[in-house]
Known about the structure:
Blueprint: E1 2-7, H1 13-28, E2 36-41, E3 55-63, E4 66-67, H2 69-77, H3 79-82, E5 86-92, H4 99-106, H5 109-114, E6 117-120, E7 122-123, H6 132-144, E8 150-151, H7 153-167
Parallel strand pairs: 1-2, 1-3, 3-5, 5-6
Antiparallel strand pairs: 3-4, 7-8
The chain binds flavin mononucleotide.
Amino acid sequence: MKILILYASKYGCTEDCTNYLKDKIKDNLKDKLKQEVKTINLKGAEHVDLQHYDWVIIGGSIYIGKIQKEIKLFCEQNLQILLTKNIVLFMCCTTPDQESEFFSKNFPASLRKHAEKTVNMGGELRQHKMGFFDKKITAMVSKLEPKKNEILYKNIDELVDFLNKKSS
Ligand SMILES: Cc1cc2nc3c(=O)[nH]c(=O)nc-3n(C[C@H](O)[C@H](O)[C@H](O)COP(=O)(O)O)c2cc1C
């Protein structure tokens, strides 16, 4: 299995989730000799060669209902080739009850339909890293509705189990 994990991250939570996923895949996936897994941060990535990979796991984090523009653009611009791959879509967010709405709004319909799996990895509000405006927005929104401030490791572990089954 050749797996490419593509992501974007503002304060590092999504990056931590993708690194956890990568390490778990490396530790757990059967058929270790044939496996290959790579992560690429789409923020600042110049050219991504998808040809080599049979699985593409792609996602980012949600800011005021939207995923990073790098993820949205990449999916739109590479839609035809992505539709030839095994796809997993994921996101990090702190309102899990809005999960299906966020997936619908942020990924092309054909890619969602084609995807083998969608995964909500949870999220963390890393206030110590935030600038003034993000801190203010977070404080305002958190008053209006409660946030889930945790990475959902169990959902990431489930994805690894799923990939394991697919590889056997
Ligand atoms: C300014 C701001 C706006 C956010 N908006 C949303 C939102 O609309 N819905 C949501 O579920 N989470 C929202 N979040 C939470 C982030 O998705 C969450 O903190 C995520 O883990 C960030 O990942 P990152 O550090 O990889 O960018 C917001 C966070 C910030 C700082």
